[in-house]
Amino acid sequence: MVVPAHSRRLFLFAAGLILVGAAALRFAQIDRRPFHADEGVQAYQTWQLLRGDGYTYDPADKHGPWLYYAAAGIAKISGWAPAALDESRLRSVTLLAGLGTIALMLGAATPLGCGPVLIGAALLAIAPLAVIYDTYFIQEAWFCFFTWALFFAALRWWDSGPKTSSESRASAGGGLGPARAPARQESRCGRSSEPSLTGALLIGALVGLMQATKETSVLHFAALAVALFAIRPLYEIRHFWPRVLPAFGMAALVYVVFYSAFFTRWAGVADGLRAYFHYAGRAAGSAHDQPWSYYLALLWPHSIQGVRWGEPLLLVMALGGMISAFSSRATITQRALAVFTVTLLVIYSLIPYKTPWLLLTPYVGLTMLAGLGVIESAQMLPAKFASIVPGLLCAALLFASGWRDFSALGRYANDDRNPYVYQPTSSDLTRLVKTLGAVAADHKIAVVSPDSAWPLPWYLRDRPAVGYFSTPPENLAAYDLILFDSRLETPLSATAFGLRPNVMLWLKPR
Amino acid sequence: MKKLFLLIPFFAAALTVRADEALTPLKVEFPPPVLTGTPVPAKLGNLEAPNTKLPPVMVPAGVTNLAKGKKVTSSDPAPVIGDLTLITDGDKESEEGYFVELDRGRQWVQIDLGASAELYAIAVWHYHSQARAYLGMIVQVSDDPEFKKDVKTLFNNDDTNSAGFGVGTSPSYLEKNTGRVIPANKAVARYVRLYSSGNTANELNHYIEVEVFGRPRP
Predict the structure, then answer these.
(1) Which is more confident, A466 or B15?
(2) B202 and A486: CB-CB below 8 Å?
């Protein structure tokens, strides 16, 4: 489909506006919250790497090395000294990935349709879940970016091999309105006779980067495989075999580079695979276990201690998008998107270990499907409504999401009644950090907490005399200040500081 | 004349009858606890004993909750969750529908008892379905609705003097179903004002119930 120049300019203008708006919203609240415990751990690791302490992969409790190297690399390029690292700077590293994901969506206008990607990108730009986790210094934003980059690259590659005549239905959409052609034309002029080597290498690199970001990438690979085989028969894989080896080689190279800490610690290469045993054990029976319906319940209308939440319109429109993805008008990318998103949701719902940020990658798919649902809603309506209903639905979706931002990013940004955050660090911790900042550097501080009161070690990283204990040490009297975790004890005549929901730190001077 | 002097102790005794009348521990009705889980025991060395029971507030006969159903005003006149009448409605449960949520930062609620009274204790429940402590908590009484004169401070844990009422020395405490019973030391006042500046879990302020125990002035 040939897109008129004025439509292209309009699309580019709208896309630019969405990206600028998304960046502004994320920057505006980048330091709204103190570090989450997990962010503190990642930041501490990055700080150690940046100041020359090296990197050692821990298969038991850490994710892959990508985030640390990416942050340390950006810090070096930007001239940030280790001591100058703070929440805003480190979170800007993941913000880049979040904006990259929106850009990827906008770049998929050809196979998905301009209307669906514009609506989807706009929804993602203001979605509380995306705004929060694009500015969380954890692996998820980058993991999400690499996943969707792999999805679109793999779709393009998968669609580039020789096809049977039965597949000649389509791949590309286009136009700012609903596509009404009964059978889509191929968007790319001519199809290469065999899948490209460049595409294979790009896919390999993305697979390696995903693995270097989070070990749970295998779940996304599985979902992608389901999506690919949903649009092309399994036996057609024979066309791709010649390119699988280079792709695998590239993936292995990226994996080895990162897990060996750039060829300085080879044990990390084996540890990276060993991590799967730890994660298999953690998949069930942990404190983070939730019912299968957790993610659905998060988006379903509900109330938590007086605060109303939910994204029912997004769910309905995404459902509409999924249904239309299986209509005769749909492109194969739209169909793959629906299968991929649903498979990811099913996989994450079946795994007992659940946190809100794990929803980020499937949520991106939901926004694109909702965009598709909005555009395709016109197909089900009489002509006189078809021109206004999609616009109204789009406005309603954006208004609902923007309205939710007031609660999720404002009043309840750091409240555990906010379903998008998980075990948030209390804003009150900044009061403790300020209080301790006024204490002489040579004063000894004992932190008695079963989990080291993260992210406190990050905030106290420059203090030379801080001891962390899971139970009170024998020489407690040697410390000038003692911080007690409220899960252990509640001493009287101490000052209370919030750490997390249900957890406080009691500061007791000696 | 000498006999007259001998009668003085009798007159004095008669005048202090109200002060010496029989006192009994104040009985406060507590809602059922919501928090679950048992704290991990830990030896605390020479720290003060944890969970020390506060001494009971002794009250004479005729002391009742004067705040029940009384008018409440606030620095946040339009709370997003709940309304101000919940503070004196007699319900002390912590679930949704029982508490009022005031805005972020320092906020106050004020109860008008209708007439000046002799106060013995003020019991307050902020929010007890989660372990948290409320910050900058100050409880004052006065006969002045503006709290500009004759203000008595009964409780103040604002240890940084952020509110400007002086450095508070009252302890921080963990919110529980037992709330906090603050002795009023027979202060005479018509208005009770309670301040807080967020809590250790979030920046918001909550009230489930405030009870003011006292009796009308003689």
Answers:
(1) A466
(2) no
Mention every residue, 6+ apart, whose C-beta is less than 8 A from residue A95: A23, A26, A27, A30, A134, A135, A141
Contact A472 B42 (CB under 8 A): yes
Counting as low any pLDDT under 70, the low residues of chain B are: 1-20, 33-52
Q: Where are the domains of chain A?
A: 5-174+191-411, 429-509
- The CATH number that applies at residue B131 is 2.60.120.260
- Is the pLDDT at A141 greater than 80? The verdict is yes
Contact B96 A305 (CB under 8 A): yes
Range of the domain at B176: 2-30+60-216
State the average pLDDT for chain A: 87
| A167: its two tokens | 């597949």
Written in H, E and C, the secondary structure of A468-481 is EECCCCCCHHHCCE
- Residue B147 within any structural domain of the chain: yes
d(CA A34, CA A412): 14
The DSSP element (H or E) to which A408 belongs, if any, is none
- How far away is chain A from the Cα of B121, in angstroms, using its nearest Cα? 21
pLDDT of residue A21: 97
Q: Which residues of A touch B201 (CB under 8 A)?
A: 415-416, 426, 428, 498, 501-502
pLDDT tier for residue A287 given thresholds of 50, 70 and 90: confident
| Residue B39 included in any domain | no
Nearest chain B residue to A497 by CA distance is B200
Query: What is the number of CB-based contacts under 8 A between chain A and chain B?
Result: 110
Instruction: Note whether A489 contacts B50, CB cutoff 8 Å.
Output: yes
Q: Do the Cβ atoms of B44 and A303 come within 8 Å?
A: no
A167-171, A285-289, B68-72, B170-174: which is most confident: B68-72
End-to-end CA distance of chain A: 76
In chain A, what residues touch B135 (CB-CB under 8 Å)? 428, 431, 496
Q: What is the pLDDT of residue A382?
A: 80
Residue B44 lies in a domain: no
Question: Angle A5-28/A87-107 helices, nearest 10 degrees?
Answer: 160
Element (H, E) at A146: helix A140-158
Does the beta-carbon distance from A306 to B99 stay under 8 Å? yes
Per-residue pLDDT tens digits for A320-376: 999 999 998 889 999 999 999 999 999 999 999 899 999 999 999 999 999 999 999
| CA of B53 vs chain A CAs: smallest distance (Å) | 11
Report yes or no on B113 lying in a domain.
yes
